Request: fold
Amino acid sequence: MTIAAEPPRQGFRPSQLLQDSRYRGLTIQVIALALLLALIAFLVRNLVVNLAALGKDFDFGFLGNRAGYDINQALIPYTNNDSHARAALVGILNTLLVAALGCVTATVVGVLAGVLRLSKNWLVGRLMTVYVEAFRNVPLLLWIVLVYAVLSESTPAPAAFRGEDAQASRLFGLIAFTNRGTYIPWPVWGEGAGVLGIVLLLSIAAAIGWRIYARRRQEATGRPLPVLWVTLAILVLPFLVVFVLLGAPVTLDVPTVRETGIARFDGGVNVLNSLVALWIALALYTGAFIAEIVRAGILSVSKGQTEAAFALGLRPGRTMRLVILPQALRVIVPPLISQYLNLTKNTSLAVAVGYADVRATLGGVTMNQTGRELESILLLGLFYLIVSLIISGVLNVYNQRIALKER
Amino acid sequence: MSDLHSQTVAYSRDTMLPPVPPPRREAGAVRWLRENLFSGPLNIILTILAIWVLWLALRDVLPWAWRGIWNAGSISECRTIRDQLYGEGTSAACWAVIRARWQQLVFGFYPASELWRPPLALVVFLLAVLPILFADLPRRLLWLTAAAPFLIVWLLWGGPIWGPVAVALGFGLGWLAWRIVARAGGPLLGAVAAILVPVLYWIFVDAPLTAALARILPIGLTPVRSSDFGGFTLSIVIGLSGITLSLPLGILLALARRSEMFIISKVAVIYIEVIRGVPLIVWLLVAQVLLNYFLPSGTNFDILLRVIIMVTLFSSAYIAEVIRGGLAALPRGQYEAADALGLGYWQAMQLIVLPQALKISIPGIVNSFIGLFKDTTLVSIISLFDPMRMSSTIRATTEWGGIYWELYIFVAAVFFVFCFAMSRYSMWLEQRLERSHR
Amino acid sequence: MKRSVVLGTLALAGLAGAAQAATLDDVKARDALNCGVNPGLTGFAAPNAEGVWEGFDVDVCRAVAAAVLGDATKVNYVPLSGETRFTALAAGEVDLLARNSTWTFSRDTDLNLDFAGVNYYDGQGFLVPSALGVTSATELDGATVCIQTGTTTELNLADFFRVNNISYTPVPIANDAEGRQQYLAGACDTYTTDASGLASVRTTFENPEEHVILPEIISKEPLGPAVRHGDNDWADIARWTLNALIVAEELGVTSANVAEMAAAPTENPEINRLLGTEGEMGAMIGLDNQWAVRAIEATGNYGEIFERHLGESTPIGLARGLNAQWTNGGLLYAPPFR
Reply:
């Protein structure tokens, strides 16, 4: 480790490749690279030989063929006459849907449970501990199956909604929870609905504008302006006025039960039980982990911060919002995002309840019907990888932004 | 002074009053209830909500579980007994299925006469881990740790004892080659010899040697096929072998990722990100369906081994990140001190950095293990008989068709006990580490 | 130059493993038959309380093992899900796939399988609660249908409803056990799978009489054992073992009397050829002359296998129907042993 001011001037000797620490790293890297390339060549060669032996080729043409199977939840129009590629796309959208729903719900559940676990109420604290431990220590697959079974056994069949004095009743007279899924009303866009949409967009822009203005005013004058109520008014009032003026261009398509034949709901949108089960199980499971993250985050902010804020005369709500949360978030957000990543990957367990996610379409039925396992699994892995990289990219950006600027 | 005081203050008491009990509402259970459950309107609402939730959850479940029937040969017998005991259609659990099939849920199809082997293997494993976890134990116990993998493999899969012995011999040969060649021709040649000698030995000498030894001294256990592994035995085998095998790999990956050599660190980063970016279930599909495509044609080894390899590769990426955290948590001074002592890279790592970094990482490793252990249920999707798949299979028999909750509750309870115990252990360890740091 | 040397070494290491060989040699060298089975389907394949695999499909594995290796217990059962069974066979993980798989054109050609024959003629049916008030599958307009993924039933269902121009909602389920749970919970109006499967599901219900199997059979489901495409010798062994079991029933050879019949030539030359007391049939498929005797001894003839696992004396209680011998009006018609 001596640092000579002038390295001995000699010609390059091969033994330096091993002995000289300046070149040794290079040697090791070259060897490692060669070994790696050899390994890859070995695997690829085997692949080529094996595929040839089986009479298979490597070709993504099968994606254009007719799929021939039905998917019970398609966010884009799909029939069994469409191609395998479209079936895969339907699966991808389904995966993203349940991942998005799960992330939002898990955050709400996790924050609630994390805060309640710190509650002074003994019973509530214990209940939350039981929840967190139960979900963290039992496999997710088991929870998915259990939630699915609970859902299908505890909800009434569509037939129960029939007749004047139906056995089962709907939530607000609109939403029907059945053992097939939850039927919810869906808006139908009539004539003039476009105007309504434009009005809504404009009021959102106006609301954001108001918030910015209010903040500037406060920073300039120190006087806070009412934000919440004004925002609500901006969002709701113009919409209502235009809605009435245009003569209710948007109507609700309320699901109705068929009174004859096989009982089923028509109209509205059916949120399948498999989706709900997967959604609830993912949200509760990930929520348990998030609860721990939130709890640790809040506990990480020292009590002195609260006391200092009180000493400055800040009220509890503002103390939380302006002092505690910004500091806690720095601790909470990075592990939170990695929980989102986990949740997204865990959506692949949809197979347990037959939810048509990308693994079930592309990596399930398509793979099985076409026998293209190599291509299918490759595409499947690539999809998950891209989603994961995007999420961890977001995480990195956030980490860089909140990194403590030490002076 | 005190004299003066006692005289001037005439109204002062000169005897101690006996203590009066606190008012009713400030003591005992009532106070506790008031403080913990009913201290304010919000708290009262929360308490009532909590009681309501508990009532909803337990109202039907408790009687159902309590009425459970333990003695029956099939679900229809269960129903008959239930109808006799409680009247037609009462809800009652049929725990008899657990009684009849617990052996399959725990051991899979492991031969009935050999059931002592998996638990013994677990005990050997735990004993082997002890000297690593507790530094106060005599160092000689590390020999047990070194021998344990071979002993465990032999206990689980059986066969002549010479198989594992002969494989272990390969490692011994490698060490010997390293000692001899490194002294004569330098460390690099030594490393090459230490890899080459055992590999050649395993390819050409191992099998005939095993056969010969088995012929001369036939000591062995009844061989058990991998396909007979099932239930929690399978989960534990996959989980424990995955985590132990992935440790060395994970350490190497973590070191590689922090390495200053560009190619090596980038390769490690790509490996870790690709493995972590794709769900385990896709990797299991790869193990089941694709692995054979990438091996020389005709090679075929059993699915359990393939799954263990895949799980090892998978968890090594996660372990690498845990250990990277441990490495990053070490104060820079430790690295600098090693440099100052003139230690080479490997010496510094081995003597100074890794012992400390690994110690910090143990809770993280235990948590990874809990995650991996729970994830072993995914192998049910590729038709290995883990507890979940075993439950489905039991439900497919004529006797137990249609049974549901009992099996899943049992499986969930066992998982809970294992994972909860381990997570408590990891928390305890974390606290102990925190204290020892100060 | 350097790379080719490395590759050469690795290839050599690969050769030390195993070269591609005929399946029969592999099986003999391994001294065990790797047989892909259903991980749990009542009557067809399921492990019993002792962990021994039993069932209609399992007996095909046992018969082939007995014929080839002389011991019906030398079978490694590899449970395979519906989604991965064919890839497992193609990848060489199993030698024989006896997992109630339907023989179809695309599977035979595109998926590189060879079906060795048909051991069960099945068809897809519908199970409905009597309370639904449906008596024909064509009345199922708007029904919610529970269906296993990764099977031909999924495609048949789509075809059936399209042909009849009625609508349905599929509820995909992972396996049979989930299927019956969902059906019983009422999450679907009807459960559809092979009719044999429906019968066995119905038997496990608390009140089987409250459920009916609709009369329509909407598809042809010839279920049979499959082998890899390209190894014709091995396919012959599987095919003729199955045929031996079928023809044994036709000729009245049972597990009880096979030893006696094989001891000395009988009056019937076909029995003699089957049991190896006349001619060299065994050698023609690369086995010894006693192969069929061992197969029949191990499992009994086709009729015995059927009665043991699916027949009217079992809880499943299936009638022979299409699976009767051609002489009894069924479809079982083994080519002559000649």
Observations:
- The first strand of chain C starts at residue 33 and ends at 37.
- Chain C touches chain B through 49 residues (CB under 8 Å).
- Chain C is about 40% helix and 20% strand.
